[in-house]
Structures are given as C-alpha cells and as structure tokens.
Design brief:
The complex is a heterodimer of chains A (about 375) and B (about 425).
Chain A lengths: L6 H37 L3 H14 L1 H25 L5 H31 L26 H6 L4 H9 L1 H4 L3 H32 L5 H11 L5 H13 L6 H5 L6 H11 L4 H9 L4 H12 L1 H16 L2 H7 L10 H6 L9 H11 L1 H21 L4
Helix pairs in contact in A: 1-2, 1-3, 1-4, 4-18, 8-12, 8-15, 13-14, 15-19
Chain B lengths: L1 H20 L12 E7 L3 H17 L3 E7 L5 H10 L6 E5 L2 H7 L20 H4 L3 E2 L2 E2 L2 E6 L2 E5 H6 L27 H11 L7 E4 L4 H10 L17 H15 L15 H6 L3 E6 L4 H6 L4 E4 L13 E7 L6 H11 L2 H11 L6 H4 L7 H10 L11 H16 L5 H17 L2
Parallel strand pairs in B: 1-2, 1-3, 8-9
Antiparallel strand pairs in B: 3-11, 4-5, 6-11, 7-9, 7-10
The chains are: A mainly alpha (about 375), B alpha/beta (about 425).
Chain lengths: ~375, ~425
C-alpha cells in the first residue's frame, strides 16, 4: 500500500461527492423544471383549460428537464473528480476543506433563497392549489399545472378585467402598475427629502455651536420613545386640514422630520475631525460648501444607508398609507395598501399576493445590489441597526 | 466617475417618474345627483353584482347615485376609525360583524329602528342579525353570513373502511347528503370515528382545529354555552356547559389523541393538512369550497356533531351600517334594504355561492353544489355571537386560557373561571 493512500480522505471525498451530486441533482432539477414550467405557462392561454394544457406540455418536457439535470450533475461530478485527482496529494486536505465550505455555503444559499423560490412557484399556481404539496416528492414545489392567470389578474390584463375596465376607466386604473408607480414615487421622494433634511440637521447638531444644543437634542431623542401610533390621528387631522388627504404628499409629509435619521447621521458626523472643517474654512469655503464638499462625501455611506432604510420604510408602510388613501381615487393607492385588497375576511388569494410580491421586491433588490457595499459599511460604522 | 454617471442617470429617471406619475387628480363626472358613498370590502366578482344592484336601485331613485368604494378588509377598522374622527367617513359601509358594537357604543352609526327597521326585522336570519343588536337596538343589518360545518376527506374515510370503496360509487354524481347517514352524529360517535381515522405513525389525524374563540364557539354552542349574557353585562364563560365543551375539546387532543394539535404555533394548519390528506376532518366555512374543488380533492361536508344542545355552529360574516355623519340616512337605508331583499339575495347567493341572510331567499335559493345545501341546513342551527364592544380583546383574554387547557397546564374549570373574571373586569365592567 502506498504511503500516500489515506482511506479517511478518500471516504471524506466520496461522502462530500455524494452530497454534492444529490444537491446538484435536486437544485438543478428544480431550476430546470422551473424553466420548463415558465415556458409552458407562457405558451398557453388563460383559464383552467390553459393550466391543464400547460400541465400536458410540462409532462412532455419531463425528459428534457430531468435530462438536463442529469447531464449537469454528471458534468459537475467529472469536473470535481478531475480536479481532485489533479490536486497534488499534500494539498488534497485543503481541497476537501474548500469543497466542504462550498457545499455548506450552497446549503446556506438554498435556505435563504427558498422562500423566494416558493413565492415564485406559488405565483404560477392556479387558485386552490397553493397549499397542495406533491405526494410523490414533498420537496418538489414547482407547480405541475402552471398558469399565468395570477399575473394577468394582478396586472388586469385578464379577460374579465379588460371587459370591466372598458366600461369604467377609473376602475381600469386600479391595477398593480398604478400602485407600483405610486409607491415608487412616494418612497423615492420621501427617502431623498429625509436624507437631505436629516443630514443638514445632523450637521448642525454635530458641528455647530448653539445655545441649549444638547438639551434640544435630548428633547428630539425623547420623541423617539413615543410610539408612532400615538401621532397617527393628530397627524391625519393635520393632513386633512391642509387639504392633502389622498395625495402623494400626505403619504410621507409627516415623516420627513426623522429623528432617527438625525441621530444616526450625527453619531457618524461626530467622528469626522473638526480640523477638516477648519481647513476648508481657512481655504474660504462657505457653510454650504463645507457641508457639501467635506461632510457629505465623508458621510456618504451612512447617508446612503439612511436613504435605503427610509425607502424600505415607505415602501412597506401599510397603516399610515391606508389611513390617508382616498380609495375613490385609484391614483392615490400605494403598493402595500393595494396588496391588502387581495385579502378577504376569511380567504387570501395567495397566488395573487405572491405574484404581486414578485414585482414588489424588484426595486428593493435593485437598490441593494447597487448599494450593498455602502450599505454594509454604513451599518457597521453607524453601529445603529433597525 | 462611474458612480457619478449612475447618480445622474438615477436623478434623471426619478425626475421622469415624477413627471409621469405625480399627478393624482382624476376626472370624475358629477351629474347633479347626490352622491352616497358606500365603503365595502367585496372582491372582484362580488363587486360586479353589487354594481348591477346599485344600477337597479338608482333607476327607482333618480336623485341619488351610489359610489361603491373598495377598501381592504384587513385595514377597514383603522381606516373607518380615523376617517370618522375627522369627519371624512362615508355614508354607509360594510364592516365585520364584530365591529358594529364598537361603532354603536361610540355613537357613530344610526339606530335603524328610527328608520322603520322593526317592520322588516323578521326577514333576516336571527343568528346573523344578532350581531347588530346592541342593547336591544339594531345598528346595522347583515349583508353576508357564514358558518362552519364539518368537512371530511372521503378518500381517508374509505381507506379506514368507513365509506364504500370508490368503485361502487360515482363521486361526481353523489350528493353530499347521501353520506349523511354514515357521518358521526354526536361527539361520542365522532371520537369513535376519530380512532379509526387516526394513524400517528403516518402523521394522519382524524381531526384538526384552531384555537380562537370564534372557531371554538362551534363547540361551545353544541353544549349550549354562552359567552356573555343577552343584555351584555355578565360573562358566562365559566358555566358548566362551557366547562364541559372545553373539556371535550381538550380530550380530543390529550386523551383520545385524534386531534393533530393544529392549534399549536407552527403546526400544519387545518386547511393545509386537509388538502394534503393529513387531516380527515376539519371545521371550515363555505368560502373554501371552490378552493378545495380546485385542489381536486374528494371531500364532503356534514353537520357539526351534536352535543347536549344538539348540532350547532358559529356565525361569521359582515354587516352594513349607516353613519351618523350622513345627511341622507333614509336613502342609504332604502338602498341597504333593497340590496338585502329576498330577490337580490337570491341572485347574489346563487351567482356567488354564498349563504342567504334573508329568510325569504332561503326557500328560493337552490345551489347546484350540494355542500352549500348542507351549510344552509347548518346555518339554521347557528348560535348567537357574543356582542361586545371589542371582540378582539375578548379573543385575547379567552384564547390563552383555553390554550392552557388544551396543552394540559390548567383544568377547564380554573381556566374558564379566570377567563370569566378577566372578561368581566376588563371588557364588560370597564
């Protein structure tokens, strides 16, 4: 027997390989099946017959997507085995460690992304099938008779909605597209204005000399201790008196003064040395220039974090937006409120809610993708989490 | 540099968005008629019929036009509370049955007695109209009513030898009643059935239930137990009848082991377990009939097993109310009574597969779906709901006590005694 032959190592490799093969087969099987399902759902028409036909199409595609999953698994297996054999013997332990790490990470990714995958799959399920679990394989969550009806109903492009919309143009505006656009406007404007005001406020509290500054700041902080619900009725009263009921302004105006934002930014700005500001002032910078050229660029990660947090808050702020929505005017309905219209007294249209949610996570996902570097930086630097 | 471009693009995109989407004025066409606003929570199919009924009413009432406005059911209570606070409320609204008492106590809704309701009160289903009765006055009328009955999975019954095998019957042609003689009539029979249907090793249970007061009313009503006295001043939940009902409920789980423990947090819900063949029987309302059919299930519906007070069930649904802020309460009343009259109810119920609330419609409604006929029968035996100013608080006070009984931490007498004390102090006397 060779001195380099380690039965333990071989056994570990075989075990890890088996795990990898099963994970690859299951995951790629589900993904390819999902692909086949999407194609079938798009290929057929509306209604229950469409779903049945899509089911037939999917059954025809079984050899295709299971075949692809098998091919994918074989290719990956060959690749990993070849890599393992090519690796010099003394580095094989490190190889196995890395392999284990990757597998653990993939398992983590599956756990994190599973709810999203479930959401996507449920949005393709016909009404009544949402909670049905496949008897043959409980892990197979891709619907066997997919339909695009949920998306059609959400976007009001199904036959019944088109017919109703032709009669009443106002009804026609009650669709997901309107709600989405409204929410996007409200959340973006609010996030922009909150960051602007909060950063200016924080600059003053952090760097300027004011009589009773500390006491004023404490007073501001004290307002954070009062639950937001307490303000709701007085704020609603004010909004109505200002004639803003049912407008986009009403959705965010009372939340523009964000004490949390001022607090978070001030904590960060305290760490910026005063000498930087003094240097700028000696060079002849005005107050505004100091703020714009020194403070904002240095505090950019935390400002962006506040932007994201505010955007998220307004994107999903149900109660306040519900209260100030004028339901007679579909142009004032925002996404969280619009989504609630799909829920009844006893039943929820799960398929509809899921298909609408598929769209509603897009802006947040895009924002995070672009800003995640700053976001993580800002979160740790501010040391304040929400 | 790249980031600067990104920011510039983002700003331009945002400005374009504002340009396209900020304007929220909408063209409405006032035509000189008085507008009556009706906030409702109907779904798409219901709204279509509602609009047709409105048109019919408007032809006889040329001075008025009704504007139906859909609001989300989930937020209808806070929406109405805040809107009423600043005088932005509608003329009339459809609200959850449990909300009428709160609105009446806050003096927000019109006593229908002043509009002549006494003369037509007898038309409405007693259990449904009961939720509008606050201190002997009626502050609303029911527009939709529900109850629960016992759903059973025929395949699981067949597997347990309780129904003839599939080959001998054509399922689609068999009316639900055909099996009525086979189903358990009393809670004792129910437990016997349950033992045959439960197979813990396969994770199959005969029954699954939720633990909230509204669902538990079904058990309590079959024992003749009441939660509050008729005048709404005393809590009666510690009566012997209620203790008997809760002891029986607890025994299904702990002693007979035929209940799956679906009331525990994180457990498979009755609905999900039922569609997946894990639970043979669940209590459910008619709202899920279409869903279960779409799920291609082989199921039937029977009456709730009888307790000492016979078969019974709970009542759910919604009521319509007229707000005191409305200047045209009589016109609103005229519309709402028209909306719920026998003729319109027949149409509403037949097309939407819902249970009528107008007794005049009871004999005229014929459902193709035999299960709905079972619900109509069950509805006749419904017990009254407890009418309190905050049903949510009542649930919060009672549910944990019953859970303590179900999980074996307390006995029923102690738990209900403590629940009665809390309800009396915090809800009825306050």
């Amino acid at each position: 027997m060779s001195a380099n032959f380690h039965p333990g190592r071989i056994l570990t490799f075989v075990l890890l390989l088996a795990l990898m093969i099963s994970m690859t087969y299951v995951i790629s099987g589900q993904l390819f099946k999902f692909g086949a399902m999407t194609v079938s759902a798009f290929a057929v028409g509306e209604g229950a017959e469409g779903a049945t036909r899509a089911g037939e199409l999917m059954r025809m595609m079984v050899p295709l997507h299971s075949g692809l999953a098998i091919i994918m698994t074989i290719i990956l297996t060959f690749y990993v085995v070849r890599r393992f054999l090519k690796t010099p013997i003394e580095q094989r332990s490190a190889f196995l460690k890395r392999m284990f790490l990757y597998e653990a990470l993939i398992a983590g990714v599956v756990v994190v992304l599973f709810p999203f995958f479930w959401m996507l799959c449920t949005s393709f399920k016909p009404s009544g099938q949402e909670l049905v679990i496949s008897k043959a394989n409980p892990f197979d969550i891709v619907p066997s008779e997919p339909t695009l009806d949920n998306f059609r109903r959400v976007l009001k492009t199904d036959a019944a909605s088109v017919a109703a919309g032709a009669l009443d143009p106002i009804e026609n505006k009650k669709n997901f597209g309107t709600y989405f656009l409204n929410s996007l406007l409200v959340a973006t404007t609010a996030a922009f204005l909150v960051t602007l005001f909060a950063s200016m406020g924080a600059y003053v509290f952090s760097k300027k000399q004011l009589p009773y500054k500390q006491q004023m700041f404490m007073l501001l902080l004290a307002t954070m201790m009062i639950p937001g619900m307490m303000f709701m009725v007085p704020q609603f009263f004010m909004v109505c008196k200002m004639g803003l009921f049912g407008t986009k302004w009403a959705m965010f105006l009372p939340h523009l003064a964000s004490v949390f934002g001022i607090f978070m930014l001030k904590q960060f700005m305290d760490t910026i040395p005063d000498s930087l500001l003094e240097a700028a002032q000696i060079d002849g910078a005005s107050e505004w220039q100091v703020f714009r050229v020194v403070i904002v660029p240095l505090a950019f990660p935390i400002i962006l974090t506040l932007f994201l947090l505010t955007f998220l808050f307004h994107w999903s702020n149900f109660l306040w937006q519900l209260i100030v929505t004028n339901f007679e005017n579909p142009l004032s309905i925002t996404l969280p409120v619009g989504l609630a219209l799909f829920r009844g007294q006893y039943t929820s249209e799960l398929g509809l809610i899921m298909s609408a949610s598929c769209f509603s996570i897009v802006p947040i996902a895009v924002l995070f993708l672009f800003a995640q570097r700053y976001f993580i930086e800002g979160m740790t630097q501010g040391a304040v989490k929400e | 540099m790249k980031e600067k471009y990104l920011i510039v693009i983002a700003v331009i995109a945002y400005l374009a968005l504002v340009f396209v989407g900020w304007d929220d004025s909408i063209a409405t066409s006032p035509d000189g008629r008085t507008i009556l606003t009706f906030w409702h929570t109907y779904n798409d199919q219901e709204e279509v019929i509602l609009r047709e009924i409105i048109k019919k009413w408007e032809t006889g009432n040329q001075k008025f036009t009704i504007r139906p406005v859909r609001i989300p059911f989930d937020g209808h209570k806070p929406k109405l509370r805040t809107a009423l606070t600043v005088g932005q409320g509608p003329d009339m609204a459809r609200v959850d049955w449990s909300f009428v008492c709160e609105l009446a106590r806050k003096n927000a809704v019109v006593d229908l007695g002043t509009l002549g309701f006494e003369t037509i009160r007898a038309q409405y289903l007693p259990a449904a109209i009961g939720s509008c009765n606050v201190g002997g006055k009626f502050y609303g009328l029911p527009d939709q009513s529900n109850c629960v009955a016992m759903f059973y999975n025929r395949q699981m019954f067949r597997d347990a030898g309780l129904l003839p095998p599939q080959a001998e019957i054509d399922n689609t042609a068999v009316p639900a009643d055909e099996f009525a003689s086979v189903l358990p009539k009393t809670w004792e029979e129910f437990i016997e059935f349950g033992k045959k249907l439960t197979d813990e090793s396969k994770g199959q249970y005969a029954f699954a239930m939720l633990n909230t007061l509204w669902w538990n009313l079904t058990f309590l009503n079959t024992y003749g137990a009441r939660i509050v006295s008729e005048d709404g001043t005393r809590c009666l939940i510690d009566s012997d009848a209620a203790v008997g009902a809760v002891e029986m409920m607890a025994s299904l789980f702990a002693k007979h082991k035929i209940e799956a423990g679906a009331w525990r947090p994180g457990a498979i819900t009755p609905e999900q377990g039922f569609v997946n063949g894990k639970y043979a029987m669940i209590m459910m309302g008619p709202w899920n009939l279409a869903k279960f059919k779409n799920a291609k299930m082989d199921f039937g519906v029977g009456l709730i097993p009888a307790g000492p007070a016979g078969t019974s069930t709970n009542v759910g649904g919604t009521d319509v109310v007229i707000f005191k802020g409305s200047k045209h309460a009589e016109a609103c009343y005229s519309f709402l009574t028209f909306f719920t009259n026998a003729e319109n109810q027949v149409r509403w119920c037949t097309e939407l597969n819902q249970l009528p609330i107008n007794l005049g419609a009871y004999d005229l409604v014929k459902f193709e779906d035999p299960h709905l006929m079972t619900f109509m029968e069950q509805m006749k035996h419904a017990g009254p709901n407890p009418v309190v100013k905050d049903f949510g608080l009542l649930e919060d006070l009672v549910n944990p006590e019953i859970e303590a009984v179900l999980s074996g931490q307390k006995n029923a007498k102690d738990a209900l005694g403590s629940a009665a004390k809390k309800v009396q102090e915090r809800l009825l006397d306050s």
